[in-house]
Design goal:
Blueprint lengths: L15 E7 L5 E3 L2 E2 L3 H7 L1 E4 L23 E6 L13 E9 L10 H14 L3 E16 L2 E4 L8 H6 L1 H13 L4 E6 L5 E10 H21 L3 E3 L13 E9 L2 E2 L14 H12 L1 H8 L5 H4 L9 E6 L4 E5 L9 E3 L8 H18 L16 H6 L9 H9 L2 H7 L1 H19 L4 H7 L4
Parallel strand pairs: 1-6, 14-15
Antiparallel strand pairs: 1-2, 1-3, 4-5, 5-6, 7-8, 7-10, 7-11, 7-12, 9-10, 12-13, 12-16, 15-16
Helix pairs in contact: 2-9, 4-5, 6-9, 7-11, 9-12, 11-13, 12-13
Length: about 450
C-alpha cells in the first residue's frame, strides 16, 4: 500500500495520538492517547508522574532523587510544529512534547525546553545553530540465549548492506514520513553494524528528528525479528557505536565557520576557532553528558578512532573535535565523544553554550593536531602535551560537577538530578563482576 494511503487524511482523523517526551537519561517515553478531540489534546497533552522523569538506566527510581513518587504529576504538552504521520503506525499521528508543571510552567526538568532556550539566546547574537548526525547501531539477534550480530560482514562491505537492503530501504522510506532526511545508509565497521547519516537541520529539529529516527529503526528492525541496538559497546570483540554530532553556526544564510583566508590554512573562521576553544574548555565535563553511561567508556578507549585527547584537528578522528574535510557551505566541526545513549537535547544545549562562551571570551584553541595520536599510549600523549579525555563515567562526572557554565546552562535542579542519576549508575556498575574477571582470576591466586 502506498505510504500516503496509509496515513490519516488529517490529524483529526487519527485514531491514536502519540506524544513523545525524553527523560533526563535520554530515554524516549510516551502515553499514546485515543483521539477524543484534538483541541483538548493540543492544549493539555497528558499527565504522567513526575517520577517518570527519573528513568535512569539501571533501576526504576534513583535513591536520593527529588523526582520521587511524592512529587505529583507533570503534563506532557505536544508541540504542534512536530506533527508527523509515521508510515509504520497507520491511524496514528505523533508529536514531540514539552514537560510542564501542574501550574502550567515549563518544567526545570524538561531537556527539550532547555535546548529551546539556548537556541533563542544564540539567535539574539544573530546566529542559527545547525546540526547533522551520524548514528551507528548494531542489528542483533539471539542465538542460543546469547546476543549475536545479524551478519558476519566486514568493514563497509557491500555484502553487509545487501544482507539488510530491504530493511534499510524500509527505514529510509519511513524516515521521510517523520520529516527526517537521511543522507547515507551503509554497513559500518563491525559485524551487523550499520550507520545512517542525517542531514543538517536547526538544532531543535535535529534533536527531535533523532528520537523519531531511533523509533523508526527500532520498530522496523523488530518487524524483521531483529533488535536494533544503540548500546555504545556490546562486547569486547564488537565495534563501538557512536553518535557523531556535526555542528556549525549560520549567519544571514552563510556559514559563519568558513573563511578561505584562515591564517592556519585549514579554512576556518576566527569565530569557529573561538567556538572550538569554548568546546575544548568544557570538553571533559561535556563528556559526562555526551557519553553518559558506564558502558560508554568501553567505546571511548584509546586508539579506537574516538575522542582520545582534548584537542582538535582536520580529519583527526582521535581528537575530541574533528574538522571534516568539506569546506565552504559545508564547513563544520564534529564532536567525537557522544554516543546514542545520550540525551541529545542536553548535549546540544551544553555544547552550543560552551562554544558561545568561547566566542564571548575569545578562547583560542591553539594549533590544530596535525598527526594521528590514536596509536599512542596515554603516556606518549601526555608527553606531547595533550590532555586526556576522561576514561570513565566517574571521572567525567567529577569534571562536570566542577563546571560552572554547564551547571548554569542546565539549571541547578536538572544539573543535580543528572549527577544523582549518573553517580548511582557508577555505583551499580562497580558492583558487577564480569565473565572476564572470573575467567582470569577464579583459580589464579
Amino acid at each position: 500500500m502506498p505510504e500516503k494511503a496509509r496515513r490519516p487524511r488529517t490529524r483529526r482523523n487519527a485514531k491514536f495520538v502519540g506524544i513523545t517526551y525524553v527523560d533526563i537519561a535520554g530515554v524516549t517515553r510516551s502515553k499514546p492517547l485515543i483521539n477524543r478531540g484534538m483541541d483538548a489534546i493540543m492544549k493539555d497533552g497528558f499527565k504522567t508522574a513526575k517520577a517518570n522523569l527519573d528513568g535512569n538506566s539501571v533501576a526504576p527510581l534513583t535513591p536520593g532523587s527529588k523526582l520521587n513518587i511524592s512529587q505529583g504529576d507533570v503534563s506532557i504538552v505536544p508541540d504542534p510544529d512536530t506533527l508527523v504521520y509515521p508510515s509504520y503506525a497507520p491511524g496514528t499521528v505523533r508529536y514531540m512534547g514539552d514537560v510542564h508543571e501542574a501550574d502550567g510552567r515549563v518544567s526545570a526538568f524538561c531537556p527539550r525546553s532547555l535546548l529551546k532556550r539556548v537556541v533563542e539566546d544564540v539567535r539574539r547574537y544573530g546566529y542559527e545553530p545547525l546540526v547533522g548526525l551520524e548514528s551507528e547501531f548494531h542489528l542483533v539477534k539471539q542465538v542460543g540465549g546469547q546476543w549475536a550480530p545479524a551478519d558476519t560482514s566486514g568493514v563497509q562491505t557491500l555484502d553487509g548492506y545487501n544482507e539488510h537492503r530491504k530493511l534499510l530501504e524500509d527505514i529510509t522510506r519511513a524516515l521521510d514520513t517523520v520529516n527526517v532526511s537521511p543522507l547515507k545508509v551503509h554497513a559500518e565497521g563491525g559485524r551487523g553494524q550499520m550507520e545512517i547519516d542525517i542531514a543538517h537541520e536547526t538544532a531543535l529539529k535535529s534533536a527531535d528528528g533523532f528520537y523519531y529516527f531511533k523509533e523508526v529503526v527500532k520498530t522496523l528492525a523488530r518487524d524483521e525479528g531483529l533488535v536494533a541496538s544503540f548500546m555504545p559497546k556490546i562486547g569486547a570483540d564488537w565495534w563501538g557505536s557512536g553518535l557523531h554530532v556535526h555542528l556549525n553556526l549560520s549567519q544571514h544564510g552563510r556559514n559563519a565557520f568558513a573563511d578561505v583566508s584562515d591564517r592556519r590554512k585549514i579554512g576556518l573562521s576566527q569565530l569557529c576557532y573561538f567556538f572550538i576553544g569554548g568546546v575544548l574548555e568544557h570538553a571533559k565535563a561535556l563528556c559526562a553528558i555526551a557519553a553518559p553511561t558506564v558502558n560508554s567508556y568501553k567505546r571511548l578507549l584509546p586508539g579506537r578512532w574516538n575522542a582520545d585527547a582534548v584537542t582538535y584537528g582536520p580529519g583527526n578522528r582521535g581528537s575530541a573535535v574533528r574538522i571534516p574535510d568539506e569546506r565552504g557551505k559545508a564547513t563544520r566541526i564534529e564532536l567525537r565523544m557522544p554516543d546514542n545513549a545520550c540525551n541529545l537535547y542536553l548535549v546540544l544545549a551544553c555544547a552550543i553554550s560552551a562554544g558561545m562562551e568561547g566566542i564571548e571570551k575569545e578562547l583560542d584553541p591553539g594549533e590544530p593536531l596535525m598527526y594521528d595520536a590514536s596509536a599512542m599510549t596515554d603516556k606518549e600523549r601526555i608527553a606531547r602535551g595533550l590532555e586526556l579525555m576522561p576514561r570513565s563515567l566517574g571521572e567525567a562526572l567529577g569534571y562536570l560537577e566542577k563546571d560552572r557554565l554547564l551547571r548554569h546552562v542546565m539549571g541547578s535542579e536538572m544539573f543535580q538530578e543528572f549527577l544523582t542519576q549518573r553517580y548511582f549508575e557508577v555505583a551499580q556498575g562497580a558492583d558487577q563482576v564480569t565473565p572476564w574477571e572470573v575467567l582470569h582470576f577464579i583459580d589464579l591466586f
